[in-house]
Amino acid sequence: MRYVNKKKKTKYIILFFLIIIMLGIVFVSWVIRPENFREVKKQINKLFSLSLTEDSYNAKSLVLVDLSNDENFISKRENEQQVPASLAKLFVIDYATTLTNLDDIVYANNEAIALTKQGSSVANIKEKKYYINNLFAAMLVPSGNDAAYVLADYCGSILDPEPKTCKENVKIFMENLNKYLKEQGYEDTILYDPSGFDTEARTTVLDIKKVVKKLLEHQWFRNIISQNLYTATLPDGSRQTWKNTNIFLDPKSEYYNKNVIGIKTGSLSDDYNLVVLYEMHGKEFLICSLGSESDSSRYDDVSYILKTIDESDYLKK
């Protein structure tokens, strides 16, 4: 009789442990989902995986995202508005894709080019025909403000076909762009100039993250942002070559990193911005940095993060 009771007791113990194991598997699978315990996991990652604090960075706002699961692993004042500078062009291009096709032909006239402000970065756009894709590249690679005005002028004329000056076309484009931004959920972004040459404009690293993720769905965008030197073929068969402002892509730069595959720089007044797409551990990571105090400090900040990604056992998973 004792033997039978002992046998039953053993069965109950085994059954108990099996239930515990099954519940543990269910719990773990629930916990690892990105939407669950997000804030707790952020703190754990900070303390044990990345071991970095806000004071580690010069940038005013910053975020590191694992694009494989949309998890933010580093963040510094991610909801604080900053000056986008030339990163405004990312929103301009996003909106322009809803109005145009890549092979549309645009005539760049001098009136639109002349809107470019003194001290701007330019792509040396000439009074001739360009494909929309050419203008996108001219805005992304050398960060050409002249290309941004030509694109805004063209899109403004689509939005309102009545004959107008280029300045009026640009105004119409910007008004509709800001409406589009609100509709798309870019609640903390407002722009006044298609080139980003405006200190009153505002955005956040989270809005930058959102627009970049959207643009990365386009292969043409990936092709453009990944090149140190980009050669565009224009409608008349001529070519124009631009050098990328992102020196992570320049083999001659001390900051060169073969695993960086874009994306863009932006600077205005005392604010230096940088967005970087990085390949490591078989995944893509996005770093958005706004408001560094110098050109070198923005690259130092991001270099520090890239090194952290390389060495993090947690991010290898």
Report on the structure:
The protein has 317 residues and is of the alpha+beta class. Helix content is 43%, strand content 18%. It has helices spanning 2-31, 38-50, 88-96, 110-113, 132-140, 145-159, 166-183, 205-215, 219-225, 295-311, 313-316; strands at residues 61-66, 71-76, 105-107, 129-131, 229-233, 239-243, 260-268, 271-280, 283-292. The protein has a five-stranded antiparallel β-sheet with strand order 2-1-9-8-7, with helices on both faces. Helix 5 (132-140) crosses helix 9 (219-225). Residues 40-51 have low confidence and may be disordered.
Topology:
Blueprint: H1 2-31, H2 38-50, E1 61-66, E2 71-76, H3 88-96, E3 105-107, H4 110-113, E4 129-131, H5 132-140, H6 145-159, H7 166-183, H8 205-215, H9 219-225, E5 229-233, E6 239-243, E7 260-268, E8 271-280, E9 283-292, H10 295-311, H11 313-316
Antiparallel strand pairs: 1-2, 1-9, 3-4, 5-6, 7-8, 8-9
Provide keyphrases for this structure:
five-stranded antiparallel β-sheet; elongated; alpha+beta; 18% strand; 317 residues; 11 helices
